[in-house]
Amino acid sequence: FDSDKMGSILKNILSNALKYTPEGGSVHIYACEEGNSWSIEVRDTGIGIPSCEQKKLFKNYFRGSNVINLKVTGSGIGLMLVYKLIKLHKGRIQIQSTEHQGTCVQITFPKGNSHLHKAKFISPKTLDEHPETIIPSKDTSEAPFMEISQENSSLQRILIVEDNDDLRNYLVDMFKAGYNIQSCPNGKEALIIIREFNPDLVISDIMMPEMTGDELCSIIKGNLEMSHIPVLLLTALGDEKNMLEGL
C-alpha cells in the first residue's frame, strides 16, 4: 500500500468530479468494506460522459467531446494514470456515466498485503525508528519553477510544462534517470526557465492557464535565441485542425 499513490488516485477522481459538476450540482463520497475488500465510490451530478466514448476512458490523451467543448483545461491523461496506479495495487475501477446526468466512479482494493507479494513494505514503526528514510517535503509554491533532478553536465536537458501536478510528476519520474529535468505548470514560467536552463527539448501540454502550449511554442519558434529548441506538444485534441495548429 503506497499512501502517496493512493492519494493521487483519490485526488484525480475527486478533481474530475468537482471540475465537471456545474454550480448547484453535488458530489458525494462513500466508503465501505465487504469481505476481503474495501471500496470508495464518488458520485456526481456533472456533465457525464457520452456513451459512445466510454470505452476510450483509459486510453492516453482521451478527453470527452463535451469536456473539450466546455473549454475546461486538462491533459486527458488523468484517468490513464489512475487506472495504472489502481492496477499496481491489484485493484479495479468501474465507471457508470450518463451524459447530462452524472457519473459514478467506484474503486475497489483487496485488504491486507498478501496480494503484493513482490513488494517491499516499510511499516510505520520502521519510519519512526529511522526518520532518515523519510524524504521531507519542500514548499515550492513561491518558486518560479521546480527543479527536479540533480545537474549532470553530461546529460541532455528537458523542460516539462504541465499544469496537472500528478501528470507533471509522472513525466518527471519517467525521464529523470537519463536527463537533467526541470518542470513548471504554465508557459509563462517556462519562458523564464528556458533562458536560464537552455533545454535540449521542451515537452508541453497545450491546454494550460496563464499561457497555453500553442502560445509557448509560437514564442519559442519566433525567438532567434530559442527557435532551435524542439517542442513536443501533448494534447487530447487529435483532429486534423488541432494538429495543424500545433505545427
List descriptors.
247 residues; alpha/beta; Heat Shock Protein 90; Rossmann fold; 2 domains; five-stranded mixed sheet; 9 strands; globular
Structure notes:
Helix 1 packs antiparallel against helix 3 (78-88) and helix 6 (187-197) packs parallel to helix 7. The protein starts with a helix and ends with a helix. The strands form two sheets. A five-stranded mixed beta sheet has the order 5-7-6-8-9, with helices on both faces. It has helices at residues 3-19, 65-69, 78-88, 124-129, 165-175, 187-197, 213-221, 240-246; strands at residues 27-34, 37-44, 92-98, 102-110, 146-147, 157-161, 180-184, 201-205, 231-234. 31% of the residues lie in helices and 21% in strands. The protein has two domains: 3-112, Histidine kinase-like ATPase, C-terminal domain (Heat Shock Protein 90, 2-Layer Sandwich), CATH 3.30.565; 146-246, Rossmann fold (3-Layer(aba) Sandwich). It is of the alpha/beta class. It is an enzyme of class 2 (transferase). The modification 4-aspartylphosphate is found at residue 205.
Taking all Cα atoms into account, the compactness measure Rg is 20 Å
Strand portion, in percent? 15-25%
Largest sheet: 5 strands, mixed
Query: Helix content range of the residues, please?
Result: 25-40%
CATH architecture verdict of the largest domain: 2-Layer Sandwich
Strand order within the widest beta sheet: 5-7-6-8-9
What is the succession of H and E elements? HEEHHEEHEEHEHEHEH
Distance between the termini: 43 Å
For this structure, the quaternary state is single chain
The number of helical segments is 8
Task: Let me know the CATH homologous superfamily of the largest domain.
Answer: Histidine kinase-like ATPase, C-terminal domain
Q: Fill in the CATH topology of the largest domain.
A: Heat Shock Protein 90
The CATH class of the largest domain turns out to be Alpha Beta
Q: Which secondary-structure class do the elements indicate?
A: alpha/beta
Q: Which segments are poorly predicted (pLDDT under 50) over 5 or more consecutive residues?
A: 130-149
Q: What is the total tally of β strands?
A: 9
Mean pLDDT value: 79
